[in-house]
Write a structure and sequence with these properties.
The complex is a heterodimer. Chain A is of the alpha/beta class. Helix content of chain A is about 30%, strand content about 20%.
Chain lengths: ~300, ~325
């Protein structure tokens, strides 16, 4: 979560179309990793954040006045947001603000909690996700979790399990090889593990395990990739590798990432949604949200006044 | 996060028994402890050593007796009526009987137990029914096997189940390998349910969700992820259950007829003629051959007990192997 050493440099992004005119007169210091303003570290400001507008963006999902209740408790309060392919959307906010709940409702994982109830609509390519059979939906909207959680089988089988039909062992290893290799390759893991595909996945390093989980999520050929604090259990080096990967992936899949790490949101997100106590306080481009937030509460949160 | 916290040095575990002086160098010894604590530690040591000694004594004694009295031909000749040790044969029927009840009992108990545990852990709805199931299984675990055996005689003597045992002129004998194995499976069932549940509960929730999150059904997740992961615990439960099955005597005496030899029925084909008939197992043979039993030939009791012990030790070794294999696959960091 927090970096002890100086944080890794921001990911190199495509050159700015619009030079950071809007961000030159920043009213706030940039956030540092633990959500507190870092006085005297103004070197890490928007000037270094050479964030580019995405090359393109297509709306894939539409969250429309979604509320999620756990029993009587309203965890998410009438949130509306677009999810676009070509960009990274980051959900930030203090613990318990409903960002993970919102993320999990995008592929109907909230339904696994018995008391959870959802109102409002979530559209995937203009179809209400509650009209889609959950297993089909979850192949189109896959998820990576906070803890690296490869299945206790070989690296190869972890990916093959996803590609195969439900529970089946059909399809020989040979037939699956291209798809498995390509998924590992997209997650930037293939070169590291190509000789150890038969090794147990749980013997990989933490960062490799998490990239295997990303590869597993990509093997289903999803349209939307959900990431729930994917780097919080990893060291800075692995974090950087995964951040690079996420930015690379945004052109192929719509990426939604929940993060506690403001700096991470700042580095990789194109749009940021700040949630507080279930409310969507502010949704804006990352530059604006961190540079000149519209709302007072956002300003306080990104400057480390609370959280 | 990590690295910023300085972990205080953990003292090495106390390895020195009381009175040995203890504190060498920086290792903490018990010499400086309060008297009460030192006495407590001494008692722990004493009891630990006592039980080790007890186990070693039993195994060694049986080993010596077994090697002394066991003859290979005992494993291949059935018991026979005779006035001398040389005429009374061996215990091949009992050995085969043990194998039969073990195989039949566990093949009933394992699928039932695993399925029950999967239902309890993964589904468990309605909650009230799950609670009732849990208490029922706990109750079965607490019932002495002799009570189960009595209950079994009631069930298996019913006319509807006459095809499972010997019957003549409308009277159902109710004692057979089928009857005994069915009741013995109840002895093993709670152990299998408990250890399978333990194995399933040890799998973090996010691992299940990771499988659902790539579009897998609950059934596929259970079959391909959860059960393979819980395999070591399931194996432990199965081995413990097997141990209980082959070690049980009450059910054998009451429900297997406890004859000295196989007593196959006439009106059935192999192997059903044997399975519907009465028989015996090693535990029953040991009991009968001991000085309290009808055979009163303790040498053969030792020999049979030794074979029984070897079977149990083999089961323990098998559990060990399964666990060692599982360790190679690794587990999730918490």
């Amino acid at each position: 979560m927090e970096f002890l050493s100086p944080p890794p440099p921001p990911i190199r992004r495509l050159p700015l179309e619009d030079p950071p005119a809007a961000t030159e007169a920043l009213p706030l210091p940039a956030p540092n990793g633990n959500g507190h303003a870092a006085p005297g570290r103004s070197g890490f400001t928007a000037a270094k954040r050479s964030i580019s507008a995405p090359q393109f963006s297509i709306r894939r999902m539409e969250i429309d006045k979604v509320s999620v209740f756990y029993g009587a408790k309203e965890a998410v309060k009438s949130v509306s947001l677009p999810v676009r392919q070509g960009e990274v959307l980051s959900l930030i906010g203090p613990s318990g603000c409903g960002k993970t709940t919102l993320l999990r409702s995008l592929n109907r994982l909230t339904e696994l909690t018995s008391q959870a109830r959802l109102t409002g609509r979530i559209l995937l390519d203009d179809v209400d996700i509650h009209q889609i059979e959950p297993t089909l939906l979850r192949r189109r909207v896959t998820m990576v979790f906070q803890q690296p959680n490869p299945f206790p089988m070989s690296v190869f089988d972890n990916i093959a399990y996803v590609i195969r039909e439900q529970g089946s062992r059909r399809m020989r290893k040979k037939a699956l090889e291209p798809a498995v290799h390509s998924a590992l390759d997209r997650a930037g893991l293939f070169e590291e593990v190509k000789d150890d595909l038969d090794h147990p996945a749980l013997k990989l390093s933490g960062g490799q395990q998490q990239r295997l989980c990303i590869a597993r999520a990509l093997a289903a050929e999803p349209e939307v990739l959900l990431l729930d604090e994917p780097c919080s259990a990893l060291d800075p080096k692995s974090t950087q590798v995964i951040e690079d990967l996420i930015v690379k992936l945004r052109d192929d899949v719509a990426v939604v990432i929940v993060t506690h790490n403001l700096q991470q949101a700042y580095r990789i997100a194109d749009h940021v949604a700040f949630m507080y106590l279930g409310d969507l306080v502010e949704y804006n481009s990352a530059t604006t949200l961190f540079g000149s937030p519209r709302e007072q509460r956002t300003r306080e949160y990104v400057s480390g006044a609370f959280g | 996060m990590e690295g910023s916290v300085t972990i205080p040095p953990v003292p090495k575990p106390v390895a020195a028994p009381p009175g040995s002086g203890g504190s060498k160098g920086a290792v903490e010894g018990s010499a400086t402890w309060r008297l009460a604590d030192r006495i407590g530690l001494a008692i722990c040591w004493g009891l630990g050593l006592l039980f080790c000694a007890l186990a070693v004594a039993i195994v060694l004694y049986l080993l010596v007796q077994g090697v002394k009295y066991l003859r290979p031909e005992m494993l291949t000749t059935p018991a026979a009526a005779g006035f001398t040790q040389a005429e009374s044969g061996g215990f091949s029927d009992a050995l085969i009987g043990t194998l039969i009840v073990a195989v039949m009992g566990i093949s009933l108990a394992l699928p039932l137990g695993v399925a029950t545990a999967v239902w309890l852990v993964e589904y468990g709805r309605p909650v009230a029914l799950a609670r009732i199931t849990e208490s029922t299984i706990e109750a079965i675990a607490g019932i002495p096997s002799i009570v189960l055996a009595l209950f079994g005689t009631v069930i298996f003597s019913s006319t509807a189940l006459s095809f499972l045992s010997r019957s003549s002129e409308g009277v159902v004998f109710g004692r057979s390998f089928f009857a005994a194995s069915a009741m013995l499976s109840l002895v093993a069932l709670p152990l299998i349910v408990a250890s399978t549940r333990e194995g399933l509960n040890a799998i973090p929730r996010h691992v299940r969700e990771a499988s659902y999150a790539v579009g897998k059904t609950k059934a596929a997740t259970t079959r391909r992820i959860l059960l393979p992961t819980a395999k070591p615990q399931i194996a432990t439960g199965a081995m413990l259950g097997l141990g209980r099955i082959i070690g049980d005597t009450a059910i054998i005496v009451v429900l297997l007829g406890a004859t000295q030899n196989f007593a196959p029925v006439e009106d059935a084909v192999f192997p059903f003629n044997y399975l519907r008939g009465a028989g015996t197992t090693l535990t029953n043979f040991v009991y009968e051959a001991s000085p309290t039993g009808n055979l009163n030939q303790p040498e053969k009791a030792y020999a049979a007990a030794f074979v029984l012990l070897l079977m149990v030790l083999a089961l323990n070794a098998a559990v060990d192997i399964v666990h060692r294999r599982a360790r190679k696959v690794g587990t999730w960091s918490s």
